[in-house]
Amino acid sequence: MKADQLAINSVSMRPSDLESILPACEAAGFTHIEFTLKHIYDYLDAGHTLQDVAALLKQHQLHCIGGFETAIACFADAEERERSHARILANCQLLGELGGTALVLGTDGPEGDCDDPVGDIAAAFGELGERVRPTGVKLCLEFNWSPIVKSVRTAVDVARRSGSDSVGVLFDPAHYHCTPSKLEMLNADSVPFIAHVHVDDMQDKPGELCHCNSDRALPGEGCLDLPQIFGRLEEHGYDGYFSIEMFDAELCAMPPAEAAQRMYDSLQYLCAG
């Protein structure tokens, strides 16, 4: 990866507000930011406008690349599905206006037996993918944020079967470590469906005993061979953003500027040249 592909997910500093996070990210060296959309909605609820958000980003020389908020309802009743899909469409419209191109999503699951749950998820993503197409935002399915989609392979299968080029996959090393995913699943057939990448390392514990969020470590401080994993993605054509996403109590307790700097510094060994 290269320095201009680095990004930070604002959830990594989730106790802080938007006006504290953005200058901290700029000072650390980040030029791209992904949002937990709660940070933006809290700012809007305080009386600001989306134009104010755009102005803040411009002031701090940051480019919005995407965000996340909720899972997609694939198995709920028609009313709940429409409510879920309308919210996701609104999130895509918001991100599109800020220049973002990726919305990360999980899924629900069926309450009982289902003949083809992966097919049902793919159909929901395909339908919604076409609705969000005008926003320019791609729906990125995060495997392991779902009771059904538990591996890279299944996530790619959903994206492929959706039939929509507005649907892709989010790859996260934490979920890779904690699920049945294997390095050989990252190949010339699957990687073209990977539209966005998170960055994190993991504590040195067996994957099945790890918590995919609380057992994360800063890149280079855990057990994962991140250069090998990300190198595999790049070998097969991935050239998008690498967004660090931490759920770390120690980082969250730090002043935002210190936390952002630690995260930025932790990424440097992964950068070429």
Textual characterization of the structure:
With 273 residues, the chain is of the alpha/beta class. It is 41% helix and 15% strand. Helix 1 (18-28) packs parallel to helix 10 (256-267) and helix 5 (117-132) crosses helix 6.
Structural class: alpha/beta
Q: Give the SSE string.
A: EHEHHEHEHEHEHEEEHEHH
Let me know the average pLDDT. Answer: 97
Most strands sheet: 8 strands, parallel, barrel
Domain tally? 1
Question: Treating each run of at least 4 consecutive H or I residues as one helix, how many helices?
Answer: 10
The coarse silhouette is: globular
CATH fold-level name = TIM Barrel
Distance between the termini: 9 Å
What low-confidence regions span 5 or more consecutive residues with pLDDT below 50? none
> What's the total count of β strands?
10
Write down the CATH class: Alpha Beta
